[in-house]
Amino acid sequence: MTVTAPRPAAAPSSASVPSARVVITALLATTFLVKACGFAYDFLGYSISAAHGTTAAGAALTLFGVGWCVGQLASGAMTDRLGARSACTIGLLLAAAVCAGLTVASGLNTLMLLAFCLGCTMDVHRPAVSAQINERLTNDGARTRAQGWVYWVSNVGISLSGGVGGFVAQAHGYRFLFALNAVASVAAALLVRRTLTGRRAAPRAEQAHVTYAQIISDARLRWMVAAAIAATTCAYGLISVLPLVMSADGLAPSAYGTAMLANSAAVLLLSPPLTRLLVGRDDRVRYPIGPVLAAGSLILGAAMALAALQHTIVGYATAAVLMVPGEICYSVAAGAFVATAAPAGAIGRYQAALSVAGAIASLTPLAVAGALTAGGRPLVAGLLVASAVLGALACVPLSRTLRTADTADTAEPAGHRPVPY
């Protein structure tokens, strides 16, 4: 009797594996779709404020921020453990379910719960996107450029979401916006599922340093997160502070849409020249990360403080435009940090840590509502300036730790990546 040995499993054909360009393009498209149709967060405050008052809206947005923190930590761990495809698909489908819930919910307690769940799911794609960029691209300069594009696409998408959504909400209501958000999340999940491949088995060496306890031990990341919290407190004022102060002025959602469209137009016009100024032809940041981030923080704080003191559509739109250089500085610095500092096997969690900084910054609406009541707009403006200054000051020890890491890396054998400072 003849026994035929089992035929070895065929290696996956390279033709079945999408190229890095295809994957990065799909990830940018996913990011843009999620952000441009992210109406639920942009107009959650307006929707709840109209039905239950400004204080309730501030509380809901704060719960959203708490959920955002939880969701980013969970999605970062899922990305590193399950792979970008599974983590991103699961998260986006959950986001669609939450948005669908917002189309029918009306009770305050239910809305508060959904606000928390929305925070847990709305930005779950971000760690997966960063992990795929660092996995698909081997050159640090190319990674920095790709990370910068992700931030740019996000900014444009957020601005378009607020701009277009304001006019759509005025014509069709908030529930229609939430339904569109749900459909977009499902579409993004399908795009990710179709484009990305399953998780590839990683060498044991790449599994090191993947716990959050180990990640927190990195002094560079600790100071980067501290600076990012302060800077994004001002940056996210565009979608947390602005709706509250404009609502207090009695301005319609279309007025908020006008300000966001002005911001979007400025991002489109200013990003190419400012990015060329900050990033060289080799795709590396021309200047140290610390000073670039500090400049971004101060610009964001000054612009949002100006916004807090406005009462007209023109004033709000002007402030939204003035903050764009700060957004670009932050995007370049954050992208360069993730592209060069995150070790293999922990990229998702490093990006999650920076996303948590934004989530913590989004906890401010309840405080803003309280500050408006207690001290008025000057108090809100003062708090924003103070946050910006703290962010700039945190960049001093950040620069020092990055220099120390850079010196240590240059003393290592070839193959270790230098970290820009």
Description:
It is a multi-pass membrane protein. It is found in: Cell membrane. This is MFS transporter. The chain crosses the membrane at residues 22-44, 50-70, 82-105, 149-168, 174-192, 223-245, 251-271, 292-313, 319-340, 352-373, 379-398. With 421 residues, the chain is an all-alpha fold. It has a single domain, classed as MFS general substrate transporter like domains (Growth Hormone, Chain: A, Up-down Bundle). The chain contains 18 helices and no strands. The radius of gyration is 22 Å and the shape is globular. The protein starts with 19 loop residues before the first helix and ends in an 11-residue tail after the last helix.
| The CATH C-level class name | Mainly Alpha
Q: Return the CATH topology.
A: Growth Hormone, Chain: A
Largest sheet: none
Order of helices and strands: HHHHHHHHHHHHHHHHHH
Number of strands: 0
Q: SS-based structural class?
A: mainly alpha
Overall body shape = globular
Rounded radius of gyration (Å): 22 Å
CATH architecture: Up-down Bundle
Number of helices: 18
**Share of helical residues:** over 70%
Averaged pLDDT: 81
According to CATH, the homologous superfamily is: MFS general substrate transporter like domains
Uncertain residue segments: 1-15, 201-209, 412-421
Q: How far is the first residue's CA from the last residue's CA?
A: 69 Å
